[in-house]
Design goal:
Blueprint (H helix, E strand, L loop, with lengths): L1 E8 L2 E3 L4 E4 L3 E3 L4 E3 L30 E5 H11 L12 E4 L11 E4 L3 E8 L4 H7 L4 H8 L4 E7 L1 E3 L5 E5 L7 H8 L17 H12 L1
Parallel strand pairs: 6-7
Antiparallel strand pairs: 1-4, 1-7, 2-3, 5-11, 6-10, 8-9, 8-12, 9-10
Length: 216
């Protein structure tokens, strides 16, 4: 398991949400990239130095500090879409190889390189920017049906990472709430929401949604 690339956003206009810019255009970078906890959502800060988000209401902050997507899943989409998808094409900060990103458990921890530790926090939910960026009508619906969302991660131990760094799973919590399960529960299968309460590391807003469903 390793990083194929570390990707940082290049700001570009965002006509799909009516915002001044988007950071979805992620490009692989050479050399080490500093990773640190960005603090609460609302400032645009994320975990990788040189990167940021512009839809500060919905993105960024400590629970969405770093976004990872598997190269294997990109390859599947590449075949379906009939066009090449470079590392970073889905707006991911980390393009991984050999790692089951969607099967990762909420609260699972990965050590990347010699020092950095990241914790799986939640699934990526597709938005209008993502659909517009790929220039694919119906993309939100198709991406949702596939339930291959990729994972957001928190920064537990900061440090530097770079392409080719090994990834090691150093902790797996004692529950079965995966990234894919969270995504399905929060999109097309809300009956699954009560199951999410088993994952203490799920962000507060996700736990509150699951709790409301449980008590309804």
């Amino acid at each position: 398991m390793k990083l194929l690339s570390v990707n940082v956003g290049k700001p570009r206009p965002n006509p799909w949400k009516g915002l001044s810019a988007t950071g979805i255009d992620k490009r692989p970078v050479d050399g080490p990239v500093a990773v640190s906890a960005p603090g609460p959502k609302g400032t645009g800060a994320v975990g990788l130095a040189g990167d940021r988000v512009y839809d500060v209401k919905h993105h960024g902050g400590s629970d969405q500090a770093v976004y990872a997507y598997a190269r294997e899943d990109l390859d599947g989409w590449q075949a379906e879409l009939g066009r090449p998808l470079a590392n970073g094409a889905f707006g991911e900060n980390l393009t991984t190889l050999g790692l089951d990103v969607n099967g990762a458990l909420i609260g699972e921890r990965w050590r990347i390189g010699p020092k950095v530790v990241l914790e799986v926090s939640c699934a990526r939910i597709p938005c209008a920017t993502f659909q517009g960026w790929l220039q694919r009508d119906g993309w939100i619906k198709r991406f949702t049906q596939a339930a291959l969302p990729g994972a957001y991660l928190r920064v537990v131990v900061p440090g530097d990472i770079r392409a080719s760094d090994p990834v090691e799973i150093v902790h797996r919590p004692d529950h079965d709430v995966t990234v894919a399960l969270v995504f399905r529960a929060m999109t097309l299968e809300p009956d699954l929401l009560p199951q999410l309460l088993a994952a203490d590391a799920l962000p507060q807003e996700g736990r509150e949604l699951a709790r409301r469903r449980t008590t309804a």
